[in-house]
Amino acid sequence: MAIQLAWILLVYGLAAAVVRLLYIRHAAELQTGHRKRPDKRRIHYILITSNHELWVEWVVRVLAAYSCLLNRSLHISVIDDQSEDCTVGILERLGRTGGFELAVISSPFTAVPPVVELEAGEAQAVLDLRTMKPSDKIPFVR
């Protein structure tokens, strides 16, 4: 019985020490400002929307989570094709609070694919939400 108690105390002590070391490391990062910076390469998505208030926020949040997993910065350009609902308002709110770059252009969309200049090392994908269904998979870029 004493051996099991000793093992429990040892494991508990090691767990407490690991938590304490992680706390000290986090506090040092906050003081010095040396945090792991995102990869210099960006992911750039071009979204084409038109009356997509029901799922545009979900799409943008999924893209943000994906870029966070890859530790890359995210830039989203949205071309809104004359939405009559709150799509633009939702996107503007996300742009203010999302932690990524978001540009919204409200204008009639033509059949010509959008041309956006890429920075060095930037990956790009075009998502036309007008032709996608909510059950379709979102194409991610690496």
As a percent range, the share of helical residues equals 40-55%
The CATH topology label of the largest domain is Rossmann fold
> How do the SSEs run, as a string of H and E?
HEHEHEE
Query: What gyration radius follows from the Cα positions, in whole Å?
Result: 22 Å
Major sheet: arrangement of strands: 3-2-1-4
Shape-level CATH architecture of the largest domain: 3-Layer(aba) Sandwich
**Straight-line distance between termini:** 54 Å
What is the residue-averaged pLDDT?
81
State the secondary-structure class. Answer: alpha/beta
Q: What would CATH call the class of the largest domain?
A: Alpha Beta
Instruction: Using the alpha-carbon principal axes, give the shape.
Output: elongated
Low-confidence stretches: none
> How many strands?
4
Count of DSSP H/I helices: 3
- Strand content bin: 15-25%
Tally of separate domains: 2
Sheet bearing the most strands, described? Answer: 4 strands, parallel
Structural overview:
It is a single chain. The chain is an alpha/beta fold and about 140 residues long. It folds into two domains: about 1-35; about 40-130, Rossmann fold, CATH 3.40.50. It contains three helices and four strands, in the order αβαβαββ. It has helices at about 1-30, 55-70, 85-95, and strands at about 40-50, 70-80, 100-105, 125-130. A four-stranded parallel beta sheet has the order 3-2-1-4, with helices on one face. The radius of gyration is 22 Å and the shape is elongated. The termini are far apart. The mean pLDDT is about 80.
